[in-house]
Amino acid sequence: MKISESQLKLVNDQVRRLVASDNYFGRRLREAGVTEVRTEADFLALPFSEKEDLRNCYPLGVSAVDEREIVRIHSSSGTTGTPVIIPYTARDVEDWAVQFARCYELAGITSEDRIQITPGYGLWTAGIGFQAGAEKLGAMAVPMGPGNTEKQLQFMVDLQTTVIGATSSYALLLAEEVERRGMLDRIALRKGVIGSERWGRKMRERVKEGLGIQVYDIYGLTEVYGPGIGISCDAEDGMHYWDDLIYIEIVDPATGVPLPDGEWGEIVITTLVKEGAPLIRFRTHDLSRIIPGPCPCGCGFPRIDSLQGRSDDMVKIKGVNVFPRQIEEVLQEYPQLSSEYQIRISHLEGRDTMRIYVETDGTQDFLELADEVAHEVKRRIGFTPLVKVVELGVLPRSEKKTRRVFDERYE
Ligand SMILES: [Zn+2]
Q1: What local confidence, expressed as pLDDT, does residue 76 receive?
Q2: Centroid of ligand 1 to alpha carbon of 129 (angstroms)
Q3: Measured in angstroms, how far is the CA atom of residue 302 from the centroid of ligand 1?
Q4: Among 97, 158, 184, 215, which is least packed, fewest CB within 10 Å?
Q5: How far apart are CA 15 and CA 271, in angstroms?
Q6: Residues 6+ apart with CB under 8 A from 411
Q7: Ligand 1: distance of its center to the CA of 199 in Å?
Q8: How close is the Cα of 282 to the center of ligand 1, in Å?
């Protein structure tokens, strides 16, 4: 989505403040000779920023304001190495709450609702984001935090909470527990606001039915406020995001070249008004696309599609970016296939080839089935793979995360 004049003006303000603050990113801009951003070309010439930069700033090198203005910090759980610390000013905290309140509103949640919040509180941005948004909206926050399912269920019944905030895995656990105890008629939930990890259609349906709720996917990351910078709506076709506070561009993850609306790539975020830790062209490694055109729900804010995974999972073949999720979606259409599959990409006789191994229960002729699946992949993704159908149980199983994509071109 083309950057607008008003967004450019805000980026320009951010750049000037960064340079004046002489923080990590300000120094980088100064060294690159950047003093102002007037045009789209100026914007696109700005260097990307990465999580690695934020690690280099540890602990507070990313701060662009005087320390007296910092009212809070959050930290993202670094699975490897140094954590990342993001400082917030009073305005950042307020802006985040406003965004989260907008999310609740878009989901049809009002000040009449009682919101049971099960994500964690503390350094993590999740719980406190749900909480601040609820208070901004004027709803009743029930700050449970994670775990203690017994008490969660008790409060759900006794307080008749109407909204649940949760990760998809905890929402599923609660749904199964409510089902197992046959207590659906004793709870009053009507909506679920669910953290934006990638989750499948089947799991989604189970959560909806198990808890009797409509679900909304919320998007966000600690480096950019936290959860609440976007949410899905009743149209269930992507997530709206608040483009008066953040600018989103989609780039080719391999080359960094911006892609037109509608094309899949990596989400890159520029904060437009953030004070504590402004970020310019921050690479999220989340894969999505801008959904062109207006949303049937009537909300005028632009949309990104549901996340397709991380850019580290993507493979490029014959000029087409392919995500394992797209192949999965095709395979899900065939009940005669198991959930297991393997994708192998190799370079044979001068060209790239994708082989997809799938397992079947044997109710259909193997060659006929292979042909059908190959045709469907071609129709949806744009090239024809070699599909190999094997018997149930032939593909390797793993107790941990099963590796499904093998790019043998570079091995
Ligand atoms: Zn909508």
Answers
A1: 84
A2: 22
A3: 9
A4: 158
A5: 11
A6: none
A7: 20
A8: 25
- The reported pLDDT for the residue numbered 340 is 80
Contacts 24+ apart (CB under 8 A), 76-79: 76/124, 76/125, 76/221, 76/222, 76/223, 77/123, 77/124
Q: What separation in Å is there between the alpha carbon of 103 and the centre of ligand 1?
A: 11
Please give the model's pTM, rounded to 2 decimal places: 0.84
CA angle 341, 342, 347 (to 5 degrees): 150
Q: Where do we find the tokens 């406020």?
A: 225
10-residue mean pLDDT series, the chain (411 residues): 96 97 96 94 96 93 97 81 92 98 98 97 93 98 95 98 93 93 98 81 87 97 96 96 98 93 96 98 95 97 91 79 83 86 86 91 92 94 92 76 75 56
Number of other residues whose CB lies within 10 A of the CB of residue 227 = 29
Tell me the CA–centroid distance for residue 175 and ligand 1, in Å. 26
Structure-block tokens of residue 215: 């679900």
Phi-psi region of 298 (alpha: psi -120 to 50; beta: other; left: phi over 0): left
Backbone phi, psi, residue 283, to 5°? -85, 115
pLDDT in the model for residue 61: 95
